[in-house]
Amino acid sequence: MSDLTPNPDAPLITFRDTMWRSVPPWLKTGTAQRLLYSIAVQLDAAGDAIIAGVKMRFPNLYSSDSLPEIGAERRIRRGLEETAENYTARLVRWFEDHRRRGGAYALLQQLWYHYAPNNFPIALWYRSGTRYEMAVDGTITRNLPPSLPLHPDWAQWSLLYFSDEFTAADEDDLVLIPRDWIAAHCFGEIIVMPAGAELWDYPASETWNGPGLWNSVDTGFRVPVR
User: Given CA atoms 128, 133, 138, 139 in this order, what sign does their dihedral have?
Assistant: First the structure.
């Protein structure tokens, strides 16, 4: 049995090579040679295009030019300043990421990649009282509420962005990842807060008498997500 293992070091056999070995001597000169060569070179170009088309289906195997199309097909958005290498790695593991789609951890992780390396604290609150807080380094902490009756609007959520970099003009970008990754039955809003801002009991034990930005003129803004 012959060895069918691919050998990447083997010389490439083209249609032109095959033609030159296969035709009789009287077709290797003059007009006949030029005619056959023009046909074979077109076949080689078509073969190269087919190979390139197949390879373009795989992230960065042939060219990074196909990353936008692959990302759109796999529903993985590229970060605002994400490198091709990092984006390629995320496109390779897209199936595993989508298995967690709709959960808080998947949403926050996608937000981290979207804004890296200019990350900022983000908190995801559900009306049930459960909080997920993500630090600048991507660490996510889950805080469960005390034993309380289920809120009638438990499927509502709020995303708090603690950053001074956004304005109302950024609303279209702000909603992209939450719309893609929040659970389908949920609806909520994004609340952009000044960096370092404090809310009642957030961070824990903060009250009106504590230090913070309670009187700041930068009051932030809300963006509904439907």
Answer: negative
- Residue that the structure tokens 């990074």 belong to: 64
Domain locations in the chain as residue ranges: 15-55, 100-225
Q: Is 193 exposed, middle or buried (0-12, 13-18, 19+ CB in 10 A)?
A: buried
φ, ψ of residue 212 in degrees (nearest 5):
155, -155
Taking only the tens of pLDDT, the chain with its 226 residues reads: 445 555 656 667 788 888 788 888 888 788 888 888 888 888 888 887 787 777 777 787 777 888 988 899 999 999 999 999 999 999 999 999 999 999 999 999 999 999 999 999 999 998 888 899 999 999 999 988 765 555 566 678 999 999 989 988 899 999 999 999 988 888 889 999 888 877 766 655 555 555 555 445 556 788 988 7
Separation CA 172–CA 170 (nearest Å): 6
Is-contact 171 177, C-beta < 8 A? Answer: no
Helical pair 67-74 and 84-92, crossing angle rounded to 10 deg: 40
Which of 16, 93, 20, 100 lies closest to 59 in space, CA to CA? 93
pTM score of the predicted model? 0.72
Question: Cα dihedral angle (48, 50, 53, 58), rounded to 10 degrees?
Answer: -90
